[in-house]
Amino acid sequence: MAKNESKNAVSPLERTSRLLDLVPYINTHQGISLVELAEVFEVSTDQMISDLTTLWMCGLPGYTPLELMDLDFESGYVTIRNAPTLARPRSITHEEGVALVLGLDVLRSGISSERLDLIEAIASLSQRIARLVNLPLALSASSNISQEVTTSVKDAIAHRSGLQISYHSLYKDVISSRVILPLEILDSQGYLYLHAYCFTALDFRHFRIDRIQSAHSVEVEKPSTALPVNPEKIGFSVKVVRPTRDVAERFEESNLEAGTVFKGSSFSQHWIARSVLASGGAVELLSPEEIRSELAKRAELILNRYEG
Is pLDDT above 60 for 7? Predict the structure, then answer.
């Protein structure tokens, strides 16, 4: 009994593989006895009955009795019908092609660069599927965060060492070189941020990791200021002037009506200011006052340019 239990204690993947092998085997060995079939696949008779019962629910899309496989094994001998239709090649839909290409890309990203044979095989298969369903070859599911940058950041945090980074600020649209002391990685609104002390700004800053283009270890002196463990976000209050889809998506507010006031928070003062400006007058920033004053100055400057 213990032997049978050990033999049948397989992973779901192994059982799925056996089920896939069962269909063509039974199809070419119609009327094989249940006991012999269990011996061929090295499982107990009870396990084979469980597998055959599962196959009853398998078939082609539609999943009616016309498409499902029809098995008979109650007599102790196994026969299968409708299985030959599974041997017919199916065309791949556009959605299926996208899923396959993205899945292969994820698989490729997890393979060592030394396995060039696997990488080339995956690339070849991806190209064939892409051509088959007319997909752009640039389609990718890989993260746009550099693996080298991620490794450097994690090492710097672990050893409390400094980094010299090349950083692209989307708000200012400039690339700057900074020396920082990484403290921790934060997750906010679906993005990873690096909380660090910036020796260029002489203050604590947050850097979106996918915008760090390069990172190299450097020697730095620890800042005398106490390093906060949980930095606070900047809170803001916004009044809806005109409900729009852009406002709902930008501020992640689904229930919006004219006159509605909602609160939010962000690690970046620039993000708050640019988000309000980008709304095109659909929202009014109520607080904080310093950002509100800055927006008023920008708006006045823009209006003066139009008048000139």
Answer: no
Residues 130 and 139: beta-carbon distance below 8 Å: yes
Asked if 198 contacts 243 with a C-beta cutoff of 8 angstroms, the reply is no
β-sheet bridge partners, residue 235? 265
Q: What is 2-87's CATH topology?
A: Arc Repressor Mutant, subunit A (1.10.10)
Tens of pLDDT, residue by residue over 43-98, are: 998 888 888 888 877 766 666 666 677 788 888 898 887 766 555 555 677 888 88
Residues 42, 3 contacting (CB under 8 angstroms): no
CATH class of the domain at 147-218? mainly beta
Report the range of poorest mean pLDDT among 16-25, 84-93, 110-119, 262-271.
84-93
Torsion of CA 258, 259, 263, 267, to 10 degrees: 60
42 against 110, higher pLDDT: 42
